[in-house]
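Posting here for the record, re: FE2/S2 (inorganic) cluster.
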Amino acid sequence: MAAVEARHASLWVETAPPAVDHPALEGEAEFDVAVLGGGITGLLTAILLKEAGLRVAVVEADRIGRGVTAHSTVKVTAGHGTRYSELERAFGLDTARVYAEANAEGLETIASLVDRLAIDCEFERRPTHVWAETAEERERLGREAAVEREVGLPTSLLDRAEELPFDVTGLLRMDDQAQFHPAKFLAGLAAAVDGGGSAVFERSRAARVEEEERRCRVSAGEGVLHANHVVVATHYPFLNRGYFFAKLYPHREYAVALRAGSEASAIRGMYINLGTPTRSLRQAADDAGDLLIVVGEGHKAGEAAPTDARYLALEDWGRTFFDAGPPEYRWSTQDPMSMDGLPFVGRIGRTSDRVWVATGFGTWGMTNAAAAAAILRERILGNDHPWARTFDAQRLTPRQSALTFSKENAKVAGHLVGDRLKALAASVRDLAPGEGRVVRRGLHAVGVARDDEGRLHAVSAACTHLGCLVAWNGAERSWDCPCHGSRFGMDGRVLHAPAVEPLESLDPSDLGLG
Ligand code: FES
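Prediction output follows.
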C-alpha cells in the first residue's frame, strides 16, 4: 500500500500549546543542584528536589517538551511486557518486586503531580494489555501473570481481547494505568520548577562537568553553573564516566498516528504484542479528531536502512486491522537499553560523590523516570533509598548481562574497526534530495547528504563521541551512530548525546563532490 503524506513530526510536539520561553544560561550562577536535561527524568527530579527545599537549575540543550519524552508512546504504566518474569529469572523474585514497587509508585507520583500542580495534560486512567498470538506466547504470558501477581501488581490473564479485531491466544491486563500528553506534562512541570530560587534554562547544551571537593562546575551554552550536586538526565549520559558506553546500547523505534475511524476511536486500552515485530497501540486525538498510534519496527540505532520502510510497515499494519485512515504524523524515538534490563540510577562513577545519573529505562521511560527521581532526591538529601541498590548505576551483573554485553560490544567493535574497512561508495552523484551516504575521500570517511534544494552537505563521518562511523537515517534526515546512539543533523550539529561536539563540517567542493 502506498504511503499517504504525513507530517514528519511527533504528534505531541505538534499539538503542544506554544512553548513558554525559558532563557539560555549566560554568565555564572549558583544553585544547590544542577539537573542536566529537561525531559521527564530531569524535570521530575527537579520538582521533587525543589519540593524538598533545594534551589534547582534545569539545563536543557534544546527546548522543553521537544526531546525524547515528547517522541515516546507515553504509556504511564507498571506493565512492561514480560519484564517481571525476565527479572525473576535473571535476578530472583526480590528484584522483580523492587522493580514493580518502583514503577507502581512511579505511576502514582506522576498522577499526584498532575493533580497537585493542576497540570492540564490529558492524564487518563486506562488499562494496559499484552497480547499473545501463539500457544508458546500464551505460555509465556501465563508465567508473566504469575510473577506479576506474586509481586503485587493488579494483573489478570484473559482468553479474549474484546477491543482487538483479530484473534489472540491470551491477554495480560493491568487495570488503572494511565496515558497522557507528554509535552503538556513537561510544560507544566517546567512552570512549577521555575521561580522561588529555582530556574529552567533552555538552548544551553551542557558540555563539561568538573567535580571539585565541595562543589561542581558545569559549563553549558554560554554560561557556568556552580552547584553542590549535578544530575545527568540527558537520556544517554553525555559524560564519559562510569563506562556507560559499554553498559548501554541504543534502540530506535518508530511511531505513526493514523486518523481513527469509529471503531479505532473506541479503543480504550493501551496494547503491546508479545511476538515480533513489535506492535504497540494506544488512542490519542488532535484538533481534527481521534487518532490511533501504532509503534514498533524497533532496531539498533544506526543499523537498519532504509528507515522509510519502517513507517510504511506500521501504517499498513494499522490500516489492515483497524478502520484507520491516512497517517497524520510520523516520528521516531531512541532509547538507551541496559544490558541486564534494569535502569541505572545513582552515582555516575565510583569516585563521584556529587554527580548522579539516571538512564537505561529501556522503552519504559515514564514510570522508571519517576522512580529514578525518587531515588535521586533521597540520595542527594543524604538518605538511603530502598530501591537504590537494585538500580545502582555502578552495579556489576556479569551473569545477567553476559549475553547482551558480548553481542552488543562485539557489534561496537565491528563498527569501530569493520566499518572503516568496508568498501565505501565513491560517488554521490545519484543522491536524491533527502538521501545521504558515507563515501571515502583519501583516508577519510565523509558523510554526504543532499537537501531539498539539491545542495550537498558534507561532514566528517567519524562520530565525535568515540569515533565509530555514522550512518544516514533517511526518515529523520540525520547522521546516526550505531555504537552508542549519538545523532547529528545534516549539517553535523548534535541532536542527541552522548556526543557533545558536532561532526566536522566539510566543503563538498574541496572534496571534489560539489
Ligand atoms: Fe559513541 Fe558514536 S555514539 S562512538
